[in-house]
Amino acid sequence: MIRFTGVSKFYGDFQVLKSVDFEAMSGERIVVCGPSGSGKSTLIRCINGLESYEQGEITVDGQRLGKDAAALRKVRNQVGMVFQQFNLFPHLTVLENLTLGPIRARKMSSGEARDLAMRYLERVRIPEQADKYPRQLSGGQQQRVAIARSLCMEPRIMLFDEPTSALDPEMITEVLDVMVELAGTGMTMIVVTHEMGFARKVADRMVFMDHGEIVETAAPGEFFTAPKSQRCRDFLDKIL
Ligand code: ADP
Ligand code: MG
Question: Whose Cα sits closest to atom 7 in ligand 1?
Fold first, then answer.
């Protein structure tokens, strides 16, 4: 579903991705971890073309991500993304946040879009918040709205970039629970997170990044009990 071959990316002289090889199969759930500044956000932002790259090749569902604007559009339609900072439209209600994409990009009628939105709000367990504005919700509720909004575009891949890092501790579980449920539907998911309980529960594969490289990739059982590299052991010692 996703393939990176020798992908390098630079910010000026600074190389943020160093010849990255990476693959995700359809339905696979991958958790990406690593120190701050190691290139995790850059890696997943490349998957939906939010970042360009200088060397190598990225293909998503058979589309090569490069200069071709039509291919980029196709990929973006299939890839949903959830950010640390929710990124909801503050001047729109929850329901309007959810129906905007389906109406504009998927050309749904407002009635159809509304039904779809309510279905996904039920999935994330906050249908009663439909008419509120984002600022009236807790952080955990806002993040669940952001997840529902992405799902309304019916993507084939969901990317999460530290979705619980901005949340108060008591709200982390309600968001992770929704993500665990989503994992159960067979969605292809790439999740940057340091929530290792979540990783153990849902990850098919762990990816550890450091200094722009994928240093290690392994099944969670092996990753947590017998990390191969010293860098990975040091990192796990700090966060576990
Ligand atoms: P992570 O998500 O693992 O914390 P990022 O992918 O955000 O790492 O960033 C990796 C490195 O690239 C960091 O050192 C960061 O400072 C640098 N970086 C990220 N975005 C930019 C940018 N737009 N311009 C210059 N450097 C950047
Ligand atoms: Mg990041």
Answer: 41
Ligand 1 pocket at CB < 6 A: 11, 14, 16, 34, 36-42
pTM of this structure: 0.97
Are the beta carbons of 129 and 141 closer than 8 angstroms? Answer: yes
How far apart are the C-alpha atoms of 67 and 28, rounded to whole Å?
Answer: 27
Q: What's the length of the chain?
A: 240
This model of the complex carries an ipTM of 0.97
Is residue 200 classed as helix, strand or coil in its secondary structure? helix
Nearest to 211 by CA among 51, 55, 54, 37: 37
Map tokens 């290139």 to a residue: 39
Going by pLDDT thresholds of 50, 70 and 90, the confidence category of residue 141 is very high
Atom 11, ligand 1: residue with shortest CA distance: 37
CA 42 to ligand 1 center in whole angstroms:
7
